[in-house]
Prior knowledge:
The protein is of the alpha/beta class. Helices cover about 50% and strands about 15% of the residues. It has eleven helices and ten strands. It is globular. About 40% of the residues are buried. The model has no long low-confidence stretch (mean pLDDT about 95). Bound molecules: 1,4-dihydronicotinamide adenine dinucleotide and ligand LO7OFUQM. 1,4-dihydronicotinamide adenine dinucleotide (NAI) binds near residues 11, 12, 36, 63 and 136.
Amino acid sequence: MNLKDKVGFITGGASGIGYATAELLLQHGAKVAIIDVNSEAGRKAVSNLAVKYGEANVTFVKCDVTEDGDIEEAFKQTIAKFGRLDIIMNNAGILNESNYKLLISVNLTAVITGTMLGLKYLRKDQGGNGGVILNMSSISGLKPSLCLPAYAATKHGVVGYTRSMANSMAADIDVHGVRFNCVCPECTDTPMVRSLESVDSLNRRGIHHAQALSNYVSENVDDMIKASYIAENTIKLLADETKNGAAMLITSKGVAFIDPPEHPYFTDRANLKR
Ligand SMILES: NC(=O)C1=CN([C@@H]2O[C@H](COP(=O)(O)OP(=O)(O)OC[C@H]3O[C@@H](n4cnc5c(N)ncnc54)[C@H](O)[C@@H]3O)[C@@H](O)[C@H]2O)C=CC1
Ligand SMILES: CCCCC/C=C\C=C\C(=O)C/C=C\C/C=C\CCCC(=O)O
């Protein structure tokens, strides 16, 4: 996919990985809607980006991704502003083991809702141009995380959902033109991680092994990979039209595509005639 003049929709785009990806899309000539619950950060993000890339190319829509109506309205406002939609990045996320129902709602349910609601605007057979849905998982979506079991459950859910949607819709891709991929970064230096330096914050959020994790974050955060590195690899995945159903692990050593295990039952079912 040539990113020039394409339109991206990024939830959690006011900060961290979402913001870095928004900026890189703008550098490639795309237009971007930053979708976020934090109005102050969202407006600030857009005013910074507008100075560099032009007011016509970036917009902010306040949206709580746990509210279906907010997500629908954000899609409508994005298309009203830019006239099309090509890229959906369901990226908003939180870390809160205490409030695991909210955690599931933001990190997993909203990814499914953003995919289902957004799909109808992307589908070539429903008036869209085709495109790509990129869901934000984590290395915690591929391996156990002893400090963050509920968080890991949401991120495993994102991988399972994204691969399943890709497989389920792959047979008709010529009709709808939509690809589904997810990214699984290792720990990245963002405000989310910086907020974990304090053991009080970790305890409030019910994160396991709080003291050990706080020590680890404080000692290592400066050396963690940067959000711009996640954005560079995310953009490569977005643009690569050969990739559908990919789970891309991003670490300081580079990227790796993690394949699901093969099983004849599922392989045969994927080939079933409908
Ligand atoms: N930083 C890291 O080490 C890693 C982060 N991730 C994932 O990347 C994504 C982005 O995380 P970061 O950039 O690190 O965090 P961040 O805290 O810097 O950015 C998250 C953004 O999501 C927004 N947000 C939170 N709840 C929302 C809601 N209900 N509705 C709309 N927006 C909401 C926040 O306001 C914030 O702007 C998350 O899904 C996170 O789980 C994945 C792997 C590693
Ligand atoms: C080891 C540092 C953990 C810091 C956790 C903060 C944010 C994590 C965000 C993620 O998406 C996960 C990324 C990397 C951590 C992966 C596993 C946690 C390792 C410790 C554990 O097993 O819980």
